[in-house]
Write a structure and sequence with these properties.
The protein has 211 residues and is an alpha/beta fold. It is 29% helix and 21% strand. The chain has an eight-stranded parallel beta barrel. The relative contact order is 0.16. Keywords: Isomerase, Metal-binding.
Length: 211
């Protein structure tokens, strides 16, 4: 089922707490996309994941690890029963299969604009899905790089049947283009949280998925 994923990125734990409270108030929403950055893989550094995961919530959590060395954070997510985790293709990880197997957590391989489906073809079997970045990671509010949506078609042509997530400048102006592709999750940051009425923005975006 297609779904809007309200997203939060901040360098303060307080902002994550406020986002959780806000997203829990959205009618029909049961999930939060949590962006985590280490200041190395991308220039921006977020609040500490260990503290963020201690925040109580009824929402399912999808954690996007934009970090250079994700191994310890993957273990942390598993320990906290995080439902879904995305890690980047360029991240330093010794072995995908030994870390990602034998857990209830689902894992996604995130690819930046410069990474092609053929680059990750040999790794696809180890993942439940692919997160396609339609911006260069690190900051909210960037321009939408629509050419990256073509990667969805390429992945299907490679025989990949896993879940597709699109992340990056998805908003009320760009979502209809994304809807033309086989996408389950539409990650929305600024297009919700920075709007005058975030709940109304979420509602309008959700309606677009029903067209």
């Amino acid at each position: 089922m297609k779904r809007i994923l309200p997203a939060v990125l901040s360098d303060t734990l307080e902002d994550y707490g406020k986002a959780i409270e806000l997203f829990e108030s959205f009618k029909g929403n049961d999930v939060i996309h949590i962006d985590i950055m280490d200041g190395e893989f991308v220039k921006t550094k977020s609040a500490d994941l260990k503290e963020v995961l201690k925040l109580p919530t009824r929402l399912k959590r999808q954690v996007h690890l934009m970090v250079q060395e994700p191994q310890d954070l993957i273990s942390l997510c598993i320990d906290h029963a995080v439902e879904e985790v995305a890690i980047h293709y360029q991240a330093q990880l010794d072995s995908y299969d030994t870390i990602l197997n034998e857990t209830q957590t689902k894992f996604f391989l995130a690819i930046n604009p410069e990474v092609t489906p053929s680059d990750i073809e040999d790794e696809l079997m180890n993942f439940d899905g692919v997160l396609i970045m339609t911006v260069n990671p690190g900051l909210q509010g960037q321009g939408f790089l629509s050419d990256n949506l073509l990667k969805i078609t390429e992945l299907r042509q490679l025989g990949f049947e896993g879940t597709i997530i699109v992340d990056g400048s998805v908003n009320i102006d760009t979502i209809e283009e994304v809807c033309n592709y086989d996408v389950r999750d539409y990650v929305v940051g600024s297009g919700i949280i920075k709007q005058n009425d975030p709940a109304e923005a979420y509602r309008k975006l959700s309606l677009k998925l029903e067209l």
